[in-house]
Amino acid sequence: MDRAGTEFRGSDLAEWTGGTWFGSIPERIEGFAFDSRSLDAGALFIALSHGERDGHNFVEAAIEAGASACMVERSLPVSIPQLVVPNALQALAECARAVRARFTGPVVGVTGSCGKTSTKEMLQWVLGKEQCHATRANWNNHLGVPLSLLELHAQGYAYSVIEAGISARGEMAYLSSMIRPNVAVFTNIGAAHLEGLGSTEGVAEEKVQLLKAAEEGAWLLAPGAVLKRPAFALVRDRAIAVSARGESASIDCEKNVEYEWMRVAPNQVRVSFDMVGQRMEYCLQTVSAGMVQNSVLAAVCGLRLGRDPVELVAGMEAWRPANNRGVWTRAGQAWIYEDSYNANPTSMADALRAFQELASSAERRLYLIGIMNELGCDAEEFHRAIGASVPYRKGDRLIFIGEDRLTEAYVRGAESAGWSDSELESFSSIEFCKEVLIDFSGAAFLKGSRSCKLECTIPPNSSQQ
Is 235 domain-assigned? Predict the structure, then answer.
C-alpha cells in the first residue's frame, strides 16, 4: 500500500493542544520536526527547549529549510504561522494522544533491556510490512514515541508497533500515556540504565509501567524469567509466558508457550513451538539465543492477534537483522561477528555465547570489546564479570576499548580466566586500533556501547554474510 506523507490541519492542532494560532491557520501541515537540519519542506517545526538549547533560536533556520509553520512557547516576529502553546513538549504529546485515540487497530508496545528494536522489526514483518506501522529506527524516547504515533494519522494501517525505551524513573508511565497499548511485549529485564533505575528490579518496576495506561483488555507477552519478577506479580493473570523448552517451569499466568530451536547453518536456526493446537515452525536468520526468544515473542503475538500462520512464517523468514545488530561480515580472511550498536551485560553475554559456539573451530579468535555504559555504582563488577566470561585459548587476542576505569575491570576479569598481559590490550579510543582487522585471519568479535564506535574497525572491503 502506497501512502502519502502524513498531513494535518492547523485547526486540529489548535484543538488538540489548546494553543492559539498567530497569523493564518494552515490548511495543511506535512509532518513534524524538531531539528531544523533534517526538516522536510512543509513540516511544522517544534521549538523544543532542552538545557541550554532553546529551539526558538532555530526557527529562522527551520523557515529557510522549508517549514510551513512552527509550534512555539512565545510568539516570534517570523513570516510563517505559529501555534503558541504553554509547553511545546507537552503539546507534542497531546497531539500524539489525539492521533492514538483515533486509531482503531491494535497497538503493540515493545520494551526491554535489549532487543527492542529487532523485536519491533520482527513484529512488523510478522503482522505484514504493508499494513503494520512501526517506530522508525529506534525512536523510542519522549520525542520519538509521539513522533512515531503521529505517523498513524489518516494512513489506514491495521496495526502499529511502538518501541518504548527509558533510562530513568517516571519515563515509562509518560510513554504509556501516549502509546496506550493493546498488547505489551517485554523482551527481557537486565542491567541497563542503572544510573537512573538503580537495580535490575528497579528496571523491572519501571518497565512494567508500560501497562499503566493500557487499553481495557490489554495483555502482555514476556519470557518466563521476566514474569517471575515481583514487579510483574499483579499482571501475570493476563500474560503469555515464553520459555525455551526445559529452561523454565510453568508460571501461573494465562498461557505458557515453550519453544525449541536448533542451528541449521552458521547464521540460521530452525524454531518451533505449539500454540492453539497448531505446530509453528520457521527458519530465522540469527546466531543468538536471545534473538530466537525475541522471534517467538513476535510470532506468538502475531498468532494471538489473528495473523494467518502461513503469512506469519513468510514474514518471519523474510526478516533480517539490521546493520550492527548481530550480523556476520566477511573481510578478506576475517570472519567478523559484529553486534556493535549497543551493549549491556545481558546482550554482551548472549552475543559472547553465540560467538564462542560458532567460532570454536577458528584457528585464531580476536575479541574487540567496548565498555558498557550507564551501569551505575556496580559498573566495574559487571565489567569484571564479562571479562572473566571470555574463555582463554592460546593464540587468541583480547582488546578492550573505552574508559580506563572500566577497561581495567575487564582486564582483571580476563586475567582471572587465564589471559596474560601479552594477549590483553586496552585502549581509551577506537582511534588507536582502527586497522586491527585489516590483515587479521580468523574469527573476530565486535561488541560495545554505541559510544565506542567499534564498527569503524571493519575494513571497507567487507560484505555482510
Answer: yes
